[in-house]
TrEMBL record:
<dbReference type="InterPro" id="IPR037930">
    <property type="entry name" value="Tom40"/>
</dbReference>
<dbReference type="Pfam" id="PF01459">
    <property type="entry name" value="Porin_3"/>
</dbReference>
<keyword id="KW-0813">Transport</keyword>
<dbReference type="InterPro" id="IPR023614">
    <property type="entry name" value="Porin_dom_sf"/>
</dbReference>
<protein>
    <submittedName>
        <fullName>Uncharacterized protein</fullName>
    </submittedName>
</protein>
<keyword id="KW-0496">Mitochondrion</keyword>
<comment type="similarity">
    <text>Belongs to the Tom40 family.</text>
</comment>
<keyword id="KW-0472">Membrane</keyword>
<dbReference type="GO" id="GO:0005741">
    <property type="term" value="C:mitochondrial outer membrane"/>
</dbReference>
<keyword id="KW-0812">Transmembrane</keyword>
<keyword id="KW-0653">Protein transport</keyword>
<dbReference type="GO" id="GO:0008320">
    <property type="term" value="F:protein transmembrane transporter activity"/>
</dbReference>
<keyword id="KW-1134">Transmembrane beta strand</keyword>
<dbReference type="InterPro" id="IPR027246">
    <property type="entry name" value="Porin_Euk/Tom40"/>
</dbReference>
<dbReference type="GO" id="GO:0030150">
    <property type="term" value="P:protein import into mitochondrial matrix"/>
</dbReference>
<keyword id="KW-1000">Mitochondrion outer membrane</keyword>
Amino acid sequence: MSLGTLPQIPTTTTKNSPLAFVTESRVWKYIQNLPYPGKIEEVGHLSKALNSDDSFDGFKIDVGINHQEGIDSAHSFNICTPNENNPIPKYNYQLVYAKGNTFCLGRLDSDRKLVGKIGSQFLDNRLGIYVVNSMNKEFQTSLQLESDFRLNFANIGFKLDNQGTRILGFYTSLTKNFSFGYESTYVPMQGAHIQQIVARRNSGPLSYFGSVNNMLQMNLGVIFKKDNLEAASDFMAGMSNNGFMSHTSVSARYHFRNNALKARVDTAGELQFTLDEGINPFVKVQYVATMNYFTNEYKFCAGLTFNK
């Protein structure tokens, strides 16, 4: 047989092949149209941000500098009296390099804690691999490997540190408005194995989320976001060393043209108002007023942020 008469190898998938059956099936087409849900640790992140405590001790100044495209640095100064309830260092410096698929971060504070993170994206930004290293003033070092793989409809994440702690998470969209995930955390130093399931449902401007784990702990929340208004409610309950405990917080933030006003109240008796006032595109002033109507304690804070 001459070379001219050799049979040609097909370059396209035949209709009867297993691959064609998968790619042309209704299930595959349904999966391909599902939205990307994000990472499992990002579920309810807006609620956590809105319901976080903005107060601090003393006075703070933040300075952010954009040196060039992809290179940013930040200086944070905290003018306060150190005490056991105020772990924030007096000074913190951070440098970030992010260009293309490469990411590098370095952070150093006045307590001599050093943090470094370096990593990159591969496979058309579907696979991310990062290494995180931290060291305190006693030269105790922690090393962690982080990796996440992104599909069109799901995310798979894995973390491992030098103490043997392992975290494996999987989060996927089941419909266009509903996503579900599972996370397993093993901490050998404590002999603990925590398993958690997470779910989220989107309905217009509303987003409902919830999680429950094998340690008899649960978290439920709802987020509302429309135009300039953001609001969230967060409920946590579970067993602890002191028995059953629960906590509920409700918050809302409204963005004006140059300002933003946030209010938060919780079942611990705390009422807090935060005003971010933009003086100009480069300067912002933050005022935080907090009152606890159970203990009759109150606090007022002020800070400055400069961006260049």
